[in-house]
Design a protein that fits this description.
CATH class: Mainly Beta
Number of domains: 1
Number of helices: 0
Distance between the termini: 26 Å
Largest sheet: 4 strands, antiparallel
Number of strands: 7
CATH topology: Thrombin, subunit H
Order of helices and strands: EEEEEEE
Radius of gyration: 11 Å
Structural class: mainly beta
Strand content: over 45%
Length: about 70
Amino acid sequence: MPSGLALRDGLIFAADNATSVVFAVDRDGNVRDFVQIIAFVPSGGLMGIAFDAEGRLYMVDAIRNRVLRMSPR
């Protein structure tokens, strides 16, 4: 259940509402990386994602009414 898309560094980042996973996919459709955030956002809560200029990922948790930030590694 896709719930958000964002572009960064030539990758498409897709949020999955059902599993609370954010996937990084290349232009050929290959999953390059993923992060499972179910410990922070319950299933059904992940509603949107966006990046800022410094590469931090912001995620909306609609169940707990909050925005989470993840910094690049």
